[in-house]
Amino acid sequence: MNKEKHLEKAERIVSSIEKLDKENDWELIVEGVYGAAQHYTACICEKKLGKHLETHKGLIKFLRENDLVELSNLFQQIDELRIGRWYGSKVNGETSKLAFKILDEIRRMMENEK
Protein backbone atom coordinates (compact mmCIF):
# COMPACT_ATOMS: atom_id res chain seq x y z
CA MET A 1 0.00 0.00 0.00
CA ASN A 2 1.38 3.43 -0.84
CA LYS A 3 1.54 6.48 1.43
CA GLU A 4 -1.65 8.05 0.06
CA LYS A 5 -3.67 4.86 0.58
CA HIS A 6 -2.36 4.55 4.13
CA LEU A 7 -3.39 8.15 4.80
CA GLU A 8 -6.87 7.61 3.33
CA LYS A 9 -7.40 4.49 5.41
CA ALA A 10 -6.19 6.19 8.61
CA GLU A 11 -8.55 9.09 8.03
CA ARG A 12 -11.50 6.75 7.39
CA ILE A 13 -10.77 4.88 10.60
CA VAL A 14 -10.51 8.10 12.61
CA SER A 15 -13.74 9.39 11.11
CA SER A 16 -15.48 6.19 12.21
CA ILE A 17 -14.10 6.01 15.74
CA GLU A 18 -14.85 9.67 16.42
CA LYS A 19 -18.56 8.79 16.08
CA LEU A 20 -18.39 6.24 18.87
CA ASP A 21 -19.37 6.89 22.48
CA LYS A 22 -16.08 7.49 24.28
CA GLU A 23 -17.35 6.10 27.57
CA ASN A 24 -19.10 2.95 26.34
CA ASP A 25 -17.23 2.08 23.14
CA TRP A 26 -13.71 2.34 24.48
CA GLU A 27 -12.69 -1.13 23.23
CA LEU A 28 -13.49 -0.26 19.62
CA ILE A 29 -11.93 3.16 19.99
CA VAL A 30 -8.64 1.70 21.22
CA GLU A 31 -8.63 -0.87 18.41
CA GLY A 32 -9.41 1.85 15.88
CA VAL A 33 -6.73 4.14 17.24
CA TYR A 34 -4.28 1.25 17.00
CA GLY A 35 -5.21 0.68 13.35
CA ALA A 36 -5.12 4.36 12.45
CA ALA A 37 -1.75 4.73 14.19
CA GLN A 38 -0.34 1.94 12.05
CA HIS A 39 -1.39 3.74 8.88
CA TYR A 40 -0.14 7.15 10.03
CA THR A 41 3.12 5.52 11.08
CA ALA A 42 3.46 4.02 7.59
CA CYS A 43 3.05 7.52 6.12
CA ILE A 44 5.72 8.96 8.39
CA CYS A 45 8.10 6.09 7.58
CA GLU A 46 7.58 6.53 3.85
CA LYS A 47 8.31 10.23 4.11
CA LYS A 48 11.38 9.86 6.32
CA LEU A 49 12.76 6.50 5.24
CA GLY A 50 11.23 5.70 1.87
CA LYS A 51 9.97 2.40 3.32
CA HIS A 52 7.58 1.03 5.93
CA LEU A 53 6.27 -2.21 7.38
CA GLU A 54 2.87 -3.48 6.25
CA THR A 55 2.23 -5.13 9.62
CA HIS A 56 2.39 -4.20 13.27
CA LYS A 57 4.58 -7.20 14.07
CA GLY A 58 8.07 -5.88 14.65
CA LEU A 59 6.99 -2.28 14.09
CA ILE A 60 8.35 -0.90 17.35
CA LYS A 61 11.74 -2.53 16.72
CA PHE A 62 11.72 -1.30 13.09
CA LEU A 63 11.05 2.26 14.24
CA ARG A 64 13.81 2.16 16.83
CA GLU A 65 16.31 0.66 14.39
CA ASN A 66 15.55 3.54 12.02
CA ASP A 67 15.99 6.27 14.66
CA LEU A 68 12.27 7.02 14.98
CA VAL A 69 12.37 6.59 18.74
CA GLU A 70 9.67 9.13 19.61
CA LEU A 71 7.27 7.52 17.14
CA SER A 72 8.17 4.07 18.45
CA ASN A 73 7.45 5.21 22.02
CA LEU A 74 4.03 6.55 21.01
CA PHE A 75 3.15 3.37 19.15
CA GLN A 76 4.30 1.32 22.13
CA GLN A 77 2.00 3.34 24.39
CA ILE A 78 -0.96 2.52 22.16
CA ASP A 79 0.10 -1.12 22.03
CA GLU A 80 0.30 -1.29 25.82
CA LEU A 81 -3.00 0.52 26.20
CA ARG A 82 -4.60 -1.92 23.81
CA ILE A 83 -3.22 -5.03 25.50
CA GLY A 84 -3.82 -3.76 29.03
CA ARG A 85 -7.39 -2.71 28.38
CA TRP A 86 -8.48 -5.35 25.88
CA TYR A 87 -7.05 -8.38 27.61
CA GLY A 88 -6.73 -6.98 31.09
CA SER A 89 -9.22 -5.62 33.54
CA LYS A 90 -8.13 -1.98 33.61
CA VAL A 91 -11.14 -0.11 32.30
CA ASN A 92 -12.28 3.42 32.96
CA GLY A 93 -13.57 6.53 31.23
CA GLU A 94 -10.08 7.80 30.54
CA THR A 95 -9.10 5.04 28.12
CA SER A 96 -10.63 6.67 25.04
CA LYS A 97 -9.22 10.08 25.92
CA LEU A 98 -5.73 8.65 26.35
CA ALA A 99 -5.92 6.71 23.08
CA PHE A 100 -7.01 9.82 21.15
CA LYS A 101 -4.32 11.91 22.84
CA ILE A 102 -1.57 9.53 21.71
CA LEU A 103 -3.06 9.36 18.22
CA ASP A 104 -3.13 13.16 18.03
CA GLU A 105 0.58 13.22 18.82
CA ILE A 106 1.26 10.79 15.97
CA ARG A 107 -0.93 12.84 13.64
CA ARG A 108 1.03 15.99 14.55
CA MET A 109 4.26 14.18 13.73
CA MET A 110 2.81 13.21 10.37
CA GLU A 111 1.67 16.75 9.66
CA ASN A 112 5.17 18.02 10.43
CA GLU A 113 6.54 15.66 7.79
CA LYS A 114 4.46 17.06 4.92
What order do the helices and strands come in, and which of them pair?
Blueprint: H1 3-17, H2 26-49, H3 59-65, H4 69-86, H5 94-112
Helix pairs in contact: 1-2, 2-4, 2-5, 3-4, 4-5
Description of the structure:
- The chain is globular and about 40 Å long.
- The chain starts with a helix and ends with a helix.
- The chain contains 5 helices and no strands.
- Helix 3 (59-65) runs antiparallel to helix 4 (69-86).
- The longest helix has 24 residues, at 26-49.
- The chain is mostly helical.
Key features of this structure:
mainly alpha; 114 residues
As an assembly, this protein is single chain
| Largest sheet descriptor | none
* Gyration radius over CA: 14 Å
The backbone outline, from C-alpha atoms, is: globular
Overall pLDDT level: 87
N- and C-termini, Cα separation: 18 Å
Number of strands: 0
Estimated structural class: mainly alpha
How large a portion of the residues is in β-strands, by DSSP E? under 5%
* Helix count from the secondary structure assignment: 5
Strand-and-helix sequence, N→C?
HHHHH
Q: What is the helix content?
A: over 70%
Low-confidence stretches: none
